[in-house]
Amino acid sequence: MWFLRRMLRISWTAKKTSDTVLEEAHTTRLLISKIRKRQATFFGHVMRREKLENLVTTGMLEGKRSRGKQREKLIEGLADWLKAGKSLEAIEATKDRKKWRTMIANAVKQGT
Q1: Which long-range contacts (CB under 8 A, 24 or more apart) does 48-53 make?
Q2: Tell me, what's the pLDDT at 112?
Q3: Phi, psi at 64, each rounded to 5°
Q4: What are the alphabetically sorted keywords of the record (predicted)?
Q5: Could you read off the pLDDT of 3-55 as tens digits, one per residue?
Q6: SS3 track for the chain
Q7: CA–CA distance, 25 with 23 (Å, rounded to integer)
């Protein structure tokens, strides 16, 4: 964002949001979508293997929850990004590799 502001000659004291700077530059945030895409492909890989990693990412481990506000789970964040509705729908979609890849491709095209 700093680099875009310099290129567009927007003063650092100007009260412009990052979204308006991105609109003026006619660009999107590519880094976030790349990170989400890699998270989704890794998540699909882990969910197809039914090992310890699968248990950890789904949160099916036994024990007490920690106090305070609970952290957002990886599944919930990816389900929101993929617009899969519930996290169970995202887990079921990972079992079919073609369906999972099309869901990821559609989410990347939307740029969310």
Answers
A1: 48/94, 48/95, 48/97
A2: 55
A3: -90, 150
A4: Endonuclease, Hydrolase, Nuclease
A5: 889 999 988 888 899 889 989 988 887 888 888 889 888 888 888 887 777 76
A6: CHHHHHHCCCCCCCCCCHHHHHHHHCCCCHHHHHHHHHHHHHHHHHHHCCCHHHHHHHCCCCCCCCCCCCCCCHHHHHHHHHCCCCHHHHHHHHCCHHHHHHHHHHHHHHCC
A7: 5
**H/E run at residue 77:** helix 74-82
- Among residues 111, 112, 95, the alpha carbon closest in space to that of 45 is found at 95
- Joined tokens for residue 27: 């660009």
Q: Is 73 helix (H, G, I), strand (E, B) or coil?
A: coil
Average pLDDT of the chain is 81
Rounded to whole angstroms, the Cα distance separating 2 from 13 reads 12
| Cβ contact 25:6 at 8 Å | no
Residue 9, pLDDT score: 92
